[in-house]
Amino acid sequence: MDLLAAGTRSQEKAEAGCCLHGVEAVLQVTHGPHFPPSTENLAQIIAGLAQDYRWIVAVHDTFGADVMGRVGGLLETSPITQVTGILDSDTVTRPVQAGQAIARVVMKKFPSLLTVRPTAFVPAAKTENLAPVRYLALPEGVLSGEHHGFYPSLSQRPDLNQAAIVVAGG
């Protein structure tokens, strides 16, 4: 299993991943100190590496779901989200019906894209054998950016955040 370390603090992520049991190599995306790769850039990098892997797995959070959705678009496949169990190399489980039932999903297209619920799995054990780090540079022409804040647009409507009383009907 290989681990991709990218984004802010990618050096720390790579160092932490090197000592996890089962990790054979850490792929660290290098970038300038002020410009970590965006989700679109990471999706392009992951899609470019995809043919070498059977599964591509991310944590099911806002960022992981966003990146996997974009990778799925590039690879023309749908991610399997919120995986809670891996039964074998072709079958996973995930909640359906608002968590009232568990579905078994048999994967038929590879690489399969998965997002996993981190609390559904036991944390990886640490090992003394350090996996090597392989550095991946952002490709030429790939944009990076930095978030400087949110600037709301002006509206003619009243701002509900400033209202003392809000009345709604429906």
What descriptors fit this protein?
170 residues; alpha/beta; three-stranded parallel β-sheet; 26% strand
Describe what is shown at a glance:
With 170 residues, the chain is of the alpha/beta class. The chain is 20% helix and 26% strand.
Describe the structure.
This protein is an alpha/beta fold and 170 residues long. The chain has helices at 10-18, 39-49, 62-75, and strands at residues 2-5, 25-30, 55-59, 80-83, 85-88, 91-96, 101-106, 112-116, 133-137. It is globular.
Can you give the mean pLDDT? 87
Fraction of residues in helices? 10-25%
Spatial order of the strands in the main sheet? 1-2-9
Give start-end ranges of low-pLDDT stretches.
Answer: none
Order of helices and strands: EHEHEHEEEEEE
Gyration radius over CA: 20 Å
Structural class: alpha/beta
β-strand number: 9
* Main sheet makeup: 3 strands, parallel
Number of helices: 3
Shape: globular
Oligomeric nature of the chains: single chain
Distance between the termini: 52 Å
Could you tell me the strand content as a percent range? 25-35%
Question: What's the helix and strand layout?
Answer:
Layout: E1 2-5, H1 10-18, E2 25-30, H2 39-49, E3 55-59, H3 62-75, E4 80-83, E5 85-88, E6 91-96, E7 101-106, E8 112-116, E9 133-137
Parallel strand pairs: 1-2, 2-9, 3-8, 4-8
Antiparallel strand pairs: 5-6, 6-7
